[in-house]
Design a protein that fits this description.
There is one protein chain. By secondary structure, the chain is mainly beta. The protein has one helix and 18 strands. It has one domain. An eight-stranded antiparallel barrel has the order 1-5-6-11-12-16-17-18. Strands 4, 7, 10, 13, 14 and 15 form a six-stranded antiparallel beta sheet that branches. The longest helix has 26 residues.
Length: 279
């Protein structure tokens, strides 16, 4: 059911962008992919809030096939000690993009968020299913003896985005330009999986372990044609499966809301006649 929800969300996202592009085609009948468009790249840091989720456990060798229900989780920002740790220790993110059309309103982008997902300890949750060969439907206290679960070296979401630009305001000399961007995309999850199921610890590892889809809205301010700062709001839905645990696999799906602050550089090749390379 969750996979159908993920697919439906993706279709809605790309349908909305397709409608926007159809609207543009009324004004510009023939869009061209230009080779002197504007490129950009950014680095920044983020904070997340996660929906509750279910964690499905499958350990056939132990006759376990059960679900932890309504599990709570939190992030670990790390950037509150930014100058005392390596820049890749906190929750960071980067983006690389290219505006490909003549009007410089549409872009493609590689989007990565290094987010940390940590199951909260010290509350009651239900486990339901088959546990050691017997039916179970019980309340447990979530602690180190019942469930230790974190994607603390990253829930790690990659997105391949389509991006739409909307101009807001700029100075006459273009030394200050303000515009909004809307993004939507789909891509793989590459989590670092570290967990213990009823004290049975897995071997912590990275793996390709699912897919995610997201939408992002942001305000970007560009200075002197090349430097920019942007504030972003993003909603992401991640569906994980086949995560390796002790003697089995696990899966879960959850949503996230992100706030992001990025600093970036932008540049383009020399303009050619007839090309409006926007800032």
């Amino acid at each position: 059911m969750k996979k159908y929800l993920l697919l439906s969300l993706s279709l809605c996202i790309f349908s909305a962008f397709a409608n926007a592009q159809n609207a543009d085609s009324v004004k510009v009948k023939h869009k061209k992919f230009v080779n002197n468009g504007r490129m950009y790249g950014s680095w920044g840091y983020n904070e997340e809030w996660y929906t509750h989720s279910n964690i499905n456990i499958s350990q056939p060798g132990q006759q376990n096939n059960f679900t932890y229900e309504n599990i709570q989780a939190h992030n670990h920002i790390g950037w509150d000690h930014l100058f005392s740790v390596a820049p890749t220790i906190p929750q960071y993110n980067y983006r690389f993009g290219y505006f490909f059309d003549e009007e410089q309103n549409w872009a493609i982008e590689l989007n990565f968020d290094h987010t940390k997902y940590i199951v909260t300890q010290g509350y009651n949750a239900i486990i339901k299913g088959e546990f050691r060969g017997r039916a179970v439907d019980s309340m447990i206290n979530v602690n180190g003896n019942t469930l230790f679960w974190q994607l603390n070296n990253g829930a790690n979401w990659f997105l391949f985005n389509i991006v739409r630009r909307f101009n807001i305001v700029k100075t006459k000399d273009n030394k200050l330009v303000v515009y909004a961007l809307l993004k939507a995309g789909f891509g793989p999850c590459v989590p670092h999986v570290d967990n213990s199921i009823f004290t049975e610890q897995n071997h912590a590892h990275f793996q390709i372990g699912g897919v995610n889809t997201g939408v992002e809205a942001l305000l970007r301010v560009t200075f002197f044609d090349h430097f920019y700062v942007e504030y972003c709001n993003k909603v992401d839905y991640a569906d994980y499966w086949g995560l390796r645990i002790f003697d089995g696999t696990a899966g879960q799906a959850f949503g996230a809301y992100e706030m992001i602050l990025n600093f970036g550089l932008t540049c383009h090749k020399k303009k050619t006649a007839g090309t409006n390379t926007a800032r």
